[in-house]
Each structure stands twice: as C-alpha cells, then as structure tokens.
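Here is one chain, start to finish.
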Amino acid sequence: MKFIRKAAAIALVGAMIVTTVQTAAPDVVKAQVLYETNKVIIDTSLVPRDKNIQVTEEGDTPLISTLANVQFDLDCNVDCTWSVEPEEAIKSKPGVKLVDVDKMGHVTIGKEAARGTYVIKAQAKYVNNKITEAMYRVTVRGDEEAAKAQSVILDKEKIEEQSPYVKVTDEGKGLQIDGTVKNVKLYTKVEPAYLLENDVDFRSNDYVTISKDAEDDTYSLLTSLAKGKGTIRPTVGNEVTDTSFETIVNTVSYNKAVIKCEEKEADKDGYNVLANEKLNFYIKDNEQNALPQITTGNVKWTMTYGNGKKIIQNQDSGELVETELGTFEFSNNGKKVQLKTPIKGEDAYEEYKDQINKKETGSNQITLVATIPYSTNGIQGTQNLELSTVTLSFSEEESSFSDVRIDFEKAGLIKDKDFTICEETIDGKKVPVYYFESSDSESDAINLWEATHADREGIRKFEESRDQSNKDATRKPFDDSSYYPITYSLSNDDLSLNDKYMDDEIVQQTKASGIISEPNKFLKLGTGYTVLTMETGNGNNKLMSTYILRFVSSAKNMTIRHTQYDSEKDAEYYNNAVIHVRQGESDIPTIYVSGVEKKLDLFYDPFIKFTFTELNGKNVASATYDSTTQTQKINGLLKGKVKVTATSVVDKTKKASYVLYVNNEFLKPEEIQIDNSDAVSLGVMDAKGNVNGHYENIPLKVRASGTSVGVPPVEWSSEDEKFATITQDGLLTTLKSTGDKTVTITATSKADPTLKATLELHIKDVMATGISTIGEKVKEGDNAVVMMGGANAGTCKAYSTFQLYAKEYLPSNATKADGQITWESSDKQVASIDASGNVTTYAEGNTVITAKYTSGDTDPKTTVFNLTVKGFADVIESIECASTVELTRVKDSFTLVPVVKPDNASNKQLMYESKNPSIATVTDNGVITAVAPGTTTIVIASVVKPSVKKEVTVTVKGEADLKPNTTPQTQQPAVQPIAPTPADTNAQSGNNTGVNEKQTKAAQKKPVIKLAKKVIKKKKSTKIIVLNKVSGAKVSYKIAKKYKKIVSVSKKGKVRAKKKGTAKIVVTVKQSGKTFKKTLTIKVK
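Its structure:
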C-alpha cells in the first residue's frame, strides 16, 4: 500500500467532464511511510473452485490443490512482492519453472509443470508489522493429467456480426454458410475459462478451408469453398477435443444485381434527374457471395431515349457517352457510371432544354439496360445476367441546396479516434462541441474543404467548386471565382467563457480578420475553445454555420506511473501495476504522455477520462479531480478490486490502466464535514441548509481532512424521517416543512463511529397552487385499468371503474396541498366521475376529465386528463343471491353474499340500495340492518352496468319477546362468492342513495394503527397496536430488507430491536372489503 502525505480534499461535482475537489495548499512529499495493518493476507476470492482446483483455507499456510495447465489470480491486502519457490523434494525436477507468479499476483501453472508442492509468498512492503508476509502452498497434483477443455462452443454474437451469410446454429455447435465467405474469424468460448493453454485451432474439410490468423497465431479464419456438409474439430492448446462442429455450405446463384444511385433514391418510375447534377450510378450485385464463385466481364450497356431512339446498343463500358440530356462516363469495367447534366448558362443547357421540351413522347427520358457477362469457376462457357431496366426522367429545374455543413468524417476523419462530439452547456444552452487532440503537425491537419458538403448530394456546381483545384492547380477550392465562394474563420468573441478556456495559439493561423488562410491545412494548435464559422454565397444569399471546437492535449503513448514508489525496485511504479488502498483512502496516479510527465489541468484541458472495470465487488472506487493541486484522485470506497483505465476523450484507442485493490480496512480521517455545494449549485438548497419545500434526490457529499484521504465511507441518517429521508448514497429527499425548527442529517464515519458530521436542515412550507399530473390510484397487488399515453392522457375499456388522483402538484416542490379538488367529465355518456375521483366508463368515445384545484386566495387552476374509452371489459351478466331475507326483530343484521357471473368478469363491483331505509338499511358491503317492522326490497346492481341487478325481499317481523340476536346472520352461498367492494356512482354527494349514514360509517370505521413505543433500546421490544379492528380482519407486517438488520416483527405484531438505527414497518389491515395501510417509523437507541 502506498502512502503519501496529501492535503485534505473536498469531493465536489465540477462543470464539464471531470469531477473536481477543492483543497487547501498541499504539502506533497513523494515518499513512502510505514503503515500498520491488522494482518498481511493473501486473498483467494478470485481463484476458481471446482474439481480441478480446490482451496483449503485452514492452518498457518493454506493450500491450493490443482491440476497443471491452469491460471488464476491471487491478491494481497497490501502492496507486496510476489515470489514462488518449489519445496525441497521437487527442486531438481524438470518443469519447476513452469509454476510462476508475476508482479500482479497472476499465477500460471504450465502443462508440463513438475508435480509437487510450491510455496507462493507475498512479502509486504512499507508496513510496520512484526509479521510482514503471507504464504500459500500450491500442490500440483501428480496423479492426474493436466486440466483439459470440458466444452467448446462458437461465439454466436462475434461470428455473426462479421457476415450476414454466416449463422451459428445448434446452440453454438454448428455453422450454416450461404455462398462464399472469406476469412470469417471463428471466435469460441472455452470452459473452463482458466485453462493456461486455451488457443483454439480448427482444421479444414472439403467444403471450408481454415487459415492462420496472424494476430493470435491460431488457425481460425474460415473461407467457404464448395457446397456440402462436413465437420470441423477444434483443438484446445494442441489437445484434440471430443467436440465437432457441423458445417453446412449452401450454394448461392449469381442472380442478384441492381442499378443504384449514391446521391438519391429511386421512386416507382425510376430516378428524377435535374440540371446541374453529378450523379454516380453503380451496379450492386452478389458476385463476392456467389458459390460456385464466378468471374464477371465488362458490363454491356444499352441506352435508349424514351421515344425509342437508341443511344448505344450492347456496348462495352470504358467510353464517354454524350447525349443531349447529359454526359455518361463509365468506369470499373462498366459497373460505375457517372452522369453530369448541364449547368444553366452553358451552351449544353439549351440543347438539354430543347430535348426535354420536344413534343415526342419520352423525349425527356433515357432508359438504361445492363448485361453482365460472367463465367462460373470450373464450368466452361460464358453466361449473361440481364438487369432490370432503369428509367431516368430529366427536368429543366436546376438542382440546388439550402444549407452547407461541415462533416469531418467526409474529410476522412474517424469519429472517436480523430475527433469526438460531446454535449456541453455553454451560455445556458446545450450545444455539441467537437473535440480534437492538439497537434502542430501538418500531417494531423484538418482539410476543411474536403469536410464541406451541401445538405443535398450531387450538386454539380458545388462539387466542382470544391474539386476545381484538381483541374487547375492555380485555383483553390471555393475561391472567389468559383460558383460558391466559402470563407472559414475563427473567433472566441461569441463565447462567454473564462479566459483560461481560450488559447491565443488557436487563432494564430488566421489573418487579422480571423479568416483561416489555408483551410486545407487547419492545424489543431493549443488547448481551449474556439468558434469555427463557415460562410458561403454572396449578397443576400449568404449561408452561415458555426461549430464550437475544443482542442485538448494529446494522449499519445500515454502511460500511468505511481511516482511515490521507487522506479528501480517497486513494480507499482510502472503501468499495469496493482495498487492497494484502504476504504476512504485515495490513490494519485501520475500520467505520462510520450515519456514526459503531464501536469493535469482537467478542468480546462479534459483530455482524458477515468473509468472502472469491476473485477471483484461493486462500487469499489470513484474518481475525483483536485483542481487546486491538479491531481486526479482514485478513491477506495468499498472492499474489492477494479481495473482503473485512463482513456483519451478523443481517441478511444489510447488507454493506460492499472489495478486498484481496496482492502477491508478503513482509513480514519482527522475530520469530516457534510458538503452541500452540489445542492447549492442546483439551486435546491442554500449554504446554510435552507430548502424551499419538497425535493427528491438532493446530492450531499462528505469532505475529509487528513493524510491520504479520499472520499470517506459514512453511514447517512435522518433525525426524523417524517421530514426528510436520505439514502446511503447521500441522496436527500425533503418531505414536509419543519416549521421554525430543523431536522438533523448526520454522516457517521465507518472508520470511527465517534466521528460525525451534521447538517441542520430547515424545510420551508410551499403551498400547492395547482395540479401538474393526474394519475390512476392503483392498490398494491392490483393491475392498472388505464394504459397511460403520456402526460395526463390514457386509454381504458368501457364498463371499467378506477380512481384518478392528483399525482403531482404545482409547483413541483410543494409540501402542502390542502386545497379542494372538483372533478368533472365533459361527456357523461362516455364516463362519469364522482367527488372522490372515482371514474366509471359506459361507452366507447373520448371525454375530458377536468380537475379544478382551489386553494386559499389564489384563483382556481384546472388540469385536464384526456380519457379515451376503447373496447369493452368483461362485465357482470347476472347476479345470484338469496331472494328473501327474514329478520326476527329490530336491530338484527344479515350479510348478503352475492355471486356474479361470469367468473372472469373484469369488474365485479356491486352497489346496494334499500328502497325503504325506514324498514331496513344496507351498507356498501351488503350488511342489512332491521330498523322497523315491515317489508322492503334491497337492490343489488353492477356498478358499471346498473341494468344487471338482483332484488332481495326483506321482511322485519319485530318480535319483541325473543332474546336480542347479537350475532349478525350471514347468507351461506351455494357457490364461491366474490368479495363485495364498495362503489359510488353519485357524483354529487358521494353516498349511495338510501343508505343509513350512521350505520354505513360504523361498518366502515377506519382502524387506528400505532406503536406502543416509538423509541426503544437495543434488544428491547414493543408492540404494534391496531384499534377499531372488526371480526375477521387480517393484519400483516412487512419490513424492507435494509431494515431487517435493525428490527424484527412477529406475526402477532411484536417488534424486537436488533441494532441502532431507524426502521420502517408497513402494517396492512384488510377488513370489510377494504385495505388500510400505514407506515410506522421506529427508532432504536
């Protein structure tokens, strides 16, 4: 482990590409300091474990028992030097040197390695311990053969992406090849993956040939030869396997050829051609894919005017053919044809126009017919392939463009190699910025002329303006005498950026006016931003486009070094090393470019970007840039192992990397503080911790001071989660106002729990003034009825019921929404909505649901939800229930249990009504209560289809001589009943007509859910209390996984504290056909 004295660092998010940290002036000393670790440990977590390799972690010197021909990685928890030594008994055996361990702990055991036991030692460096080494014995078993491949399959994805004519079949064990393919790389997957000799070679058969790939020295490049079915057998590390891959090669006839144009697409009648065009036609055929292979000859062309007049007849290519409608030039054995039509003002244009305007039918057309002679390999004689006729229809209209653009790829530059495009915010706008690596070499210069293209291809005047220097060396492309003069200029005046972002060297290649003097040799000088402006045309017809360019330093021959180590004796000094840190500790790599140390100024010169490849563990490390010391910090966050890679922002092929191992220890900082600067920069919090209303995912970080500190690992907590919650990633959510008080957010150091940092959070109330989003309220476990179609719009079926609610309010940070919502439907024939937002749909159509929000003195604000009703839900067709009910005396009760048909009805909601509530009442759950002697009728009806109903006659006798019946009677259904659910179709009052209000409320009384104690001590217990629970109610308790380490809860609601912290318990009560939920918060001290 390396240890440099470093300054305190504050992790902040900076602008542009890099994350930055601010520090005090550092006292950096490039020297190792002694480190006292708990123990030197060899970590075998990345060693494979199967029948070939076994790991026994017992005793002072644990054992790895393995076969030969394997490789695996060992790790040490601190910086170390690795070595391997055979035990005395096998030192003289041949093959002892075939067991090796490199500087990164990578162990290789060759196939011919001497069998026996070896000791691998990790000698710790720069530790202040009595014991500074750890050992593992490795036994290469002598009674067994070397490890061999157990399976080999073809890599479908990698093979098929090379050619559309090759398909991997039979789960990676077969190949189907259509026609001729050449040099298709046969990528494979070998198991076990840890074999040392794992190169895969193939042998040819009668239908495919396998050639050698010079890059990896394997026989793995496939070329098809002839139709047939055969097999190819792979060898792995020169060992013949039992696997064989079937190869099926199919013939492909030479019969696919069409005439295409590079610049435009054909319509159903052919190509429309304008004056002032230069069009390139070509023949696209399957010559390369045909099997048996064929050889084509010169294409023979027949050209005819639309009136039947022949221009050329079955003529070999290679000639220039001039017609009244343009000049045709043939090349590439006739497979390419370039057509140039006259330019207005030229003499040829008048002939062109005359030909078009002739009265003869088809005088403005030319038809092209191509015949390709070809011979098949191995077959004597020549055959002809005749292509479909192509018609060119010419017009007097002159081709023109509306815009001119720079396309760097047109100039031969490769994206993500020669340049890249990043989106940045400049002057408050998101704009594309073109990044280039700086270079003063003319060989790296950009040819702006070649990069300049019109938004419409094939415009002759434009292309001849660009290419005129090819014909006349005294002229320059786009000069003042050309059809389209173009100037290129550089300026920084339009960018409101700090001067440090600019570099005067960039504009040195321009004239005093800013115009680039040699656009074909535009040098990428300096580092910084500049604006490239391209202007074309004259007078009022000028076109102008601008491009923001950013030149950054080159990453040529980039390497990573750790200069705090000794370059002569420490492997950690050089590229591709393993660096060890503790959690909360940082590593500072040094970047070298072309052998010279590069001082990092990534804020103004972001030429590289650091990324991580996880090798073991997750969220192991992060990268922060310290703009004060101009150093890049790689921070150890959690135990694990990652590959750290620095990649050029422009040229993604330029990389340097090393491995970071974060051990299980913590670096204790001297002090920690909560950093809310990100939240301040986002405008959601001020520096003192004042927050206006409700926000989600407000970023908080922790800064630390001390030697070698990085991003300190902490436990986040909120004093009261009713007001604010915070995740362990430091993302804060404010929920409601704290009034004139504050809520404390605490970060506790994992290295030292006594080390804490706090932020006093004052959350201010923000009143809702309106509704921004209307959504469907869906109960947990239920499916949504409405298919949302964007913001405030959705589709559902007729005969459906659901509830809409205010999902989000205006402003978005509102903490209080105590206004009144009035709901209304524009078409009640399609859907109705009641005062609580319950919607019932009746017919197909569209309706607008309006929610009017009224609060305080503000004017009411309306929000609309566009509802489309399409199709019909399966509805209740019949209701079965007892036809008569007899109640002996007043206050007796009876519960109806209706059964609906069909069973698969999607909406089974029912409503109940008493025609004479003075005799008997009925609740929403079908509970009948006798009020007075007499007879009445209870009507049970479908909510969504009220015409489907069932009437029940209720007789109340009122016999006073009987003892009071305290147990309500319940109808016993003959078949499985549905659970009746409450419904409401009265949009005015929200109550069912005829229901006794007091009795309804009694039946639907809401349960009270609370904790006996909200704060308990560790290992103590409390109980969850549920009041107003009716008979038959079901109560359940649920704890999220992250809270189970803090508390547990039994099926009877007994809560037991396990460790300090705050936990949440979700209590669900199901009774009377309704579900009630409440989240309880309990704190363990």
